[in-house]
Each structure stands twice: as structure tokens, then as C-alpha cells.
Specification:
about 35% helix, alpha/beta, 10 helices
Length: about 350
């Protein structure tokens, strides 16, 4: 669980806190916070070593996905460098700008905004506050800002590998993928997955079908919070014959994993984090996870900006620099044929070497 000093949005109608499920509160309050005796009170000034301040997207800091991974990177920097890590959770997009402004007013050394949907609010704040340092995850600007470090991840290749693996593992000849919201950081995973299945088909002469995405249109939950949506979408895919599902939907995907646990004949490919580790209630259904190592990027950014005084610039996580990857098979290891394991390893090496192109 996430434990650190936390601040929450003033005036937010609800604070979404997601562990195994979502819940709404009328009042802003901390969740999973350390006991008062263990945490130093928040102050209006940065700690001596500096302060990194995260503004989450609506999934919340305990989403078992990218918001949580980002804050884990900040916590690691807190432990190693003494940089105080704080977070404000956004209950809706209306909270983005106020949360950013709250951290500007507080005097944070670095404000980290998590996700594509915070791109506009971050740009506005960076323009209005040229001396304030920012970092944003999953967004790039056509005209870079001197005071914004962009953290992006080449997630198509590991998704391609997961698609190839899924095509090799399906027993029904049908797999599926779906997204939370139809935005580029989501659909790039789905594109990679579909292309990986298609590559397997071309290499093996098979005809594995992918439900949920055709490269232009597909299935989306419309949110990143509702676990019931994830259950319902997975159930619908299973009714159409899919026995492996790749949700790119944050906590919504946890609902699909819960469905798979109940169904007993469906596997899930996790996203962002190694969900075998973080979603222990459903660990047995994860074939693998497509990893986006946001924690490493955040840690390195805090060191560069807060400790070393750098600013701006960009980061791209790749297979080669371990910014992205594919998780171990864990409980499913014994079910993956040795031949397929070897093919996955060879495919990974070929992608890194540029011998297999992933669009």
C-alpha cells in the first residue's frame, strides 16, 4: 500500500481511492495514510532536500497502475535522497488545474502530472509559471517547454510481444483487448497487441482473431475506475469465445481479472504494473503483464531536476533501456510451452536489434 504524506483536492466532490474496488466520499480525506505519530506534518515550505509533488489522474494513487507506480518512484527518491513525496488525487478533470495550482502555491520543487489527460492543464501552468519545474507522464508537446520534462514510453513493442504470446497460448483461437478511454497512450498498447497477434498468424499460418480493436475503432469502458465495467466487458468477450483478454484500462482491468478468476478458463494480460504482484486476489489468472516502468522514470527525473538542478527535456522508455518490458509468467509458467518461451525471447531480441519492426 502507498504510505506517505498526502494532500487532497480542496473542493473535490469525491476522492477516488482504489485498492480492490472504488468508493466515493463526500469529504476529502487521506487513505492508507501513515498514522499521525509516524508522519511529519505537512508544511507550506519544501523540505530541505526538496519536494516532489504528484497530481494523479482519476484512477487514484492506489490504482495498481500508472498513478501508483509513479508515486512509488517518488517514494523511492524520498528514501534515497530525502526529497519529500506528496500527492493530490484528482476525482475528476475539474481537479487537474486546482491541484496543480495548490502545489505551485506550496512551493514544490517539482510537480509531476500523471497522464495524457493532464496535458493541457500542465501546459497552462507551465506557461503561467516559467520558474516552476514540471514533469508529465504520457504526453509530448509539439513545442517543448523549458520547464517541463516529458516522460513517455514505447509500449507498442512489449504489447506486440504479449500479443504474440497470447496467440500462441489461446485454446479457442480468439483473444481480446479493450481500453479505458480512446486516447493515444491507451490505443498504442492495443495496436501493439493486435500487431503481435497478426505477426504470429503470419509466422505460423494460423488465424487467431482479436476482438475489441481493429486499429481504428473498438471497445472502451469510457473510464479508468469502474471495476464492474471491466467484469461486464470481459464477460462479453468470453461469450464471444475469447480466452485471453488484454485490458488497457487501469483499475477497470481489475474487474476483468476478477471475472477471469470466477470463470476459471480465461487468462488476463496485465498492463503498466506486474499485476501478478499487485493484484494478489487474482494473481493466478495473469499470463503476463506489459510493463511500463514509470517508477524508474520518475525516480530519475526527481534526481535530475530536484537534486541536480536540471530542467526540461524528454525521456523515452524502451525495451533496450528497460523502460518497458514484459513480466514473468509466474503461476502460468508451467503452462507456457518451452518452444513458445524461446520464441518470445528471440522475438524480444529481434525487436531490440531492429530485425522485427513494430509500428
Amino acid at each position: 500500500m502507498i504510505k506517505s504524506k498526502r494532500l487532497f483536492a480542496v473542493g473535490a466532490a469525491a476522492v477516488l481511492v482504489l485498492a480492490a474496488c472504488g468508493s466515493d466520499d463526500d469529504d476529502s480525506s487521506s487513505t492508507d495514510a501513515a498514522p499521525a505519530t509516524d508522519a511529519a506534518p505537512a508544511t507550506d515550505a519544501p523540505a530541505e532536500a526538496g519536494t516532489s509533488c504528484e497530481v494523479t489522474d482519476v484512477g487514484g494513487v492506489d490504482d495498481k497502475g500508472f498513478n501508483q507506480i509513479a508515486f512509488e518512484g517518488a517514494q523511492a527518491a524520498e528514501a534515497d535522497f530525502g526529497v519529500t513525496a506528496e500527492v493530490l488525487e484528482s476525482a475528476s478533470d475539474a481537479d487537474y488545474a486546482p491541484n496543480i495550482q495548490s502545489f505551485i502555491d506550496k512551493g514544490c520543487n517539482l510537480i509531476i502530472t500523471v497522464g495524457f489527460l493532464l496535458g493541457d492543464a500542465t501546459a497552462t501552468a507551465a506557461t503561467d509559471n516559467p520558474d516552476q519545474q514540471f514533469a508529465i507522464i504520457d504526453f509530448g508537446y509539439e513545442e517543448p517547454f523549458d520547464n517541463v520534462r516529458t516522460l513517455n514510453f514505447d509500449t507498442a513493442p512489449p504489447s506486440f510481444i504479449a500479443g504474440y504470446l497470447s496467440a500462441g497460448m489461446t485454446q479457442t483461437g480468439t483473444v481480446a483487448t479493450y481500453g479505458g478511454i480512446n486516447i493515444p497512450p491507451v490505443t498504442v498498447f492495443m495496436d501493439g497487441y493486435v500487431n503481435g497477434v497478426n505477426y504470429y498468424n503470419s509466422e505460423k499460418g494460423t488465424d487467431v482473431t482479436v476482438l475489441g480493436w481493429d486499429g481504428a475503432d473498438g471497445t472502451f469502458a469510457g473510464n479508468f475506475e469502474n471495476l464492474d465495467d471491466g467484469k461486464n466487458i470481459a464477460s462479453s468477450f468470453a461469450d464471444e469465445g475469447a480466452d485471453i483478454i488484454f485490458p488497457v484500462a487501469g483499475p477497470v482491468g481489475l474487474g476483468s481479472a476478477a471475472f477471469a478468476t470466477e470463470a476459471g478458463d480465461v487468462l488476463i494480460v496485465g498492463v503498466d504494473n506486474d499485476l501478478f504482484e499487485s493484484d494478489s486476489a487474482n494473481a493466478g489468472v495473469y499470463l503476463t503483464s506489459v510493463l511500463k516502468n514509470i517508477d524508474t522514470a520518475v525516480y530519475d527525473t526527481i534526481e535530475a531536476v530536484v537534486i541536480n538542478g536540471e530542467n526540461g527535456g524528454g525521456y523515452l522508455g524502451t525495451l533496450e533501456n528497460n523502460g518497458v518490458g514484459v513480466a514473468p509468467y509466474h503461476d502460468q509458467d508451467g503452462n507456457v510451452p518451452d518452444e513458445l518461451k524461446a520464441e518470445v525471447e528471440a522475438l524480444t531480441a529481434a525487436i531490440i536489434a531492429g530485425e522485427v519492426a513494430v509500428d
